[in-house]
Amino acid sequence: MVSPAGEDSESKGGVSDVAEPETTSQVQPTGVKVAAQDLDRFTALAEVGQHSSDLMIVIDQVGAIMYANPVALETFGISLEEGIGSSAFKYLHPDDLERVVHRFVELLQIPNGSMRDAVRTMDENGEIRELELVSTNSMDNPAVAGIIVNGRDVTEQRRYIKQLQAHEQRFRLAFEDNMAPMIFTDLEDRVIAANDAFCEMLGYTVEELLGADSTPFTYPEDLGISEEALQRISRNEVGQSRYVKRYLRKDGRVIVVEVSRSPARDTNGQTLYYVISERDITEERTLTAQLSHQALHDSLTGLSNRALFDDRLAQAHSRVAREGGLCAVLLLDLDDFKGVNDTLGHLAGDQLLIAIARRLEKVTRASDTLCRFGGDEFLYLAENLSSPSDAEHTATRLLEALAEPFFIAGVRVEQHSSIGVVVSDGTRANNSECVQDADVALYEAKREGKGHFVVFESSMHQQAASRFALIQELRHALQGGELSMHYQPIVDLVTTDIVGFEALMRWRHPQRGWVPPSVFIPLAEQSELILELGHFALREAITTANSWPRTNEQTTLPYVTVNLSSHQFHDPGLVAMVEGLLGDSGLDPERLVIEITESVTLLYVTETMSVMEKLHRLGISFALDDFGTGFSSLSYLALLQPKIIKIDQSFVSPALESVRNDALLEAIVSLGPKLNMTMLGEGIETRSQLERLRLLGCELGQGFLFSAAVPADAVIPLLQRSSGHWALG
Ligand code: C2E
Ligand code: MG
Ligand code: MG
Fold first, then answer.
1. What is the CATH number of domain 21-153?
2. Which residue's CA is the closest to the ligand 1 atom numbered 42?
3. Of 3.30.70.660, 3.30.70.270, 3.40.50.1000, 2.40.128.270, which CATH number belongs to 297-457?
């Protein structure tokens, strides 16, 4: 737009100052010799006008054009003929007309006066042009006798300026309001402009930054980075350079920033300043670091995970192969850890794992690697060993680290571990083989009792392999009908009536013959297979017991006792399964007794109790098996309230009969009446054992003296033949 032309006119000879300062220069004083339009009158003027790049017209006192130079004609879009004599006002933009006429009249009253104006013209096509004019009253000059209007078309120039302004505005916005931190620096790399985002990123104000080079806010170690980039650009090696550096914020925090630096050059290619745009990637970096940490560490304990361990183990192997020496892998498995989870809850279980990790970490040497292998297993890689005994010392150190009890959620917890150790001299370079061997040794350690370590020997492979083969065969045994239930009579020791039978599983292997349950049950317990076996035992026992007749008029129908593995108590489908089997068979639930061992009940009290309660509500009762072999705790007995306590065979027929054992047996049997539980002596083989138990007041008994376990089809003949009792000579 044309700026509103100044209304100011000035007294004689003065040039009125108008808005646009850039147009002040073209004022040409009058005094030009003006001749007539017929060339005689305006010869001199025309001479100037003809070659001027400015427009020039001379108008009379009513505004009629007396002279117009070529530039003027072109500007108005008219020919000389059209122009001469026409009113100069007719070419004006209608909006400017009134004002210009007013100013014209004003000027007429100031002889030799001069006035500056910005006006717009409009041609027939409506095209608008902007002119900057200086009009001079030369009425009194006889050679002219008119008003000389001199000026130039500034349309393009104005348009250019507007464009430039818009451009600048855009640029300012792009810089100032840019979310990306940006600065401009001079050739010495001193800040000449910084946007808000940059100030915010560093915690400095613009005032603090201006004029400074980046030294005070660059992380000292990274000072060389920007310098090098600067040099490469100034040597013209690169047009733009990108790099990552660290800044020191005003508050002392270190941030990581990605920098993109470009030189702003003039048309000759000379660098004027640098435009630097940055991106704070601190969080990204931290996240990446976290992610890569996460990829290599266990999230619960923060220890290395399997991936990292594998890497270290591979390195250790190649080192040993190269430099000699030994390394060892120790596989730790917490003993009965599940009990903690079940009794104290998973949160406490997690806390215990963390506490264990910290203890183990404390005794981990700098050159060694400790890793959480998953669940309750840890792996320890011991390096730089000079002899296998070093590995044993390491194992002892780890076991000792767990010797002291833990306090979790206010509860004192004893948590020990078993360890399988594999010593490697570099000839076995296979990671997973190594861990597998450690696992084999661990199995042996567990077998020896908890809290031990065992060093792997190659002979163990054979055992492990045959164990593995046996498990595979056991899977097929179930489908192949090689498993069956045998039943051992439970006898009233006074009347020798058969009151029930214990169902005991048997496996008739096609090649090996009878495989004892003491071999295959612990194997099955290592996998889900035990659940299938347990289901089989219950189904068989329940349906079989349903067909048993009464032994004589006085007795009730014999019950059946079924051994349940601890794992079965963690099977959420157990109660429904038992209920289903009872329903299908129609067996009176009171005729089913479930045998659990002490270790089961002690380890998983809460869970076991709740399952027992549900089963109890179905009408089922319980027998506590192998009493005296576990961590006998009388308070647990009171808690579990089993109907029958089965005194372990080691008390009934001790290998070494002694006074001490006698006293123990007596004490155990005397518990029955006190706790209102029925005592049962297991493994009665001799008359004297029977007599002793009878004397002590033990009500029930089992043992080869009466009968070993017999196949299902031998039960009924047994019941009938003896009419339910034994006549023991
Ligand atoms: P248990 O429950 O204590 O079973 C008693 C074991 O003592 C049986 O061994 C039985 O045959 C044996 N026995 C009975 N009377 C005498 C005797 O007078 N002298 C001697 N020396 N032994 C006698 P078995 O059948 O070999 O079972 C061993 C263990 O395997 C059982 O101990 C039980 O813990 C487990 N088991 C057997 N069947 C099953 C089952 O179906 N499920 C589960 N979970 N465990 C089972
Ligand atoms: Mg039993
Ligand atoms: Mg037993």
1. 3.30.450.20
2. 563
3. 3.30.70.270
